[in-house]
Amino acid sequence: MSAFKLRIVFASLIAATLALMLLDIAIGAVDIPMSDVWKSLTGGNVVDPSTSLIVRHIRLIKATVALLCGMALSVSGLQMQTLFRNPLAGPYVLGISSGASLGVAIMLLGSAWLGISSPLGIVTAAWIGAASVLLAISAVSTRIKDIMVLLILGIMLSSAISAIVQMLQYLSHEDALKSFVIWTMGSLGEVTGPQLAILAAAVSAGLLVAIATIKPLDILLLGEQYARTMGLNLRRSRMIIILSTTLLAGTVTAFCGPIGFIGLAMPHVARAITRRADHRVLLPASALVGAIVLIGCDLVSKLLVLPINSITALVGIPVVIWVVLSNKSFSA
After folding, report:
1. Is the pLDDT of residue 93 over 60?
2. Which residue of 71, 125, 255, 326 pairs with 107 in a disulfide if CB–CB is 3.0 to 4.6 A?
3. Contact of 99 with 161, CB cutoff 8 Å
4. What single DSSP character describes residue 246?
């Protein structure tokens, strides 16, 4: 694809992102005319003051959360697929989601016994759980050379954590169990204004770290042996990539629950659109595609009154099936 066509692609992706955000803000339990949405966002006079309140303090926050989460999950998925050289790797492959789930399960079980539940407490517990997994993976990665062994250990750690979470679910009270199940369905509407500032700062930091990994990711595409001959410090690069993924996927999971298939499927859509393997192109394209799809899924989930995870699964599964069927390494 020529540079001119790439500019058109990126311009189209940006335009689609902005258009879907406006549409997501306009549509809800009470539809708001697009003219009122625009006036509310630009400071114009709106006939009904409550309309401006809904647009600025409720729907704009939710649309922004969808934008940030879509970008974060898609970029972290791209990093994991390149790091492990596996098209079916996703942002949660190292157990980050399981660690966050364990933190939330402990928090909710403790709330049932001690009465200490709060939305910020759940976010903090999820963050601590994800960070704990990062520390464990980091400690192991310093002693392991083969990246596939690290992948297997990450899957085993995730399974062990899931077993502990199941035990906590079995021991928890009915109300705590219901709260945990609802959390696992994912939600973009629970983030408040102050929490959005924390979410945006963490995701921005993760994206900046991801930008710093562009060159190592391009080198890793050619294999670890080639990367060593190029003088790349594999362990340091691996740690930076894992740190970025934890900041991105861990933050999203902490604030919105485990949102599936965006990080796994959307990097493949970006590759199909751009027809490039260069991460200078793939990383921003993945971010925009992830944002577009998650905002669209949020729009559909509002119209059908369904959990966001059910919509992302219906969108992402066909993409994963297409990847499996079109990848020669998976065929006999």
Report:
1. yes
2. 125
3. yes
4. I
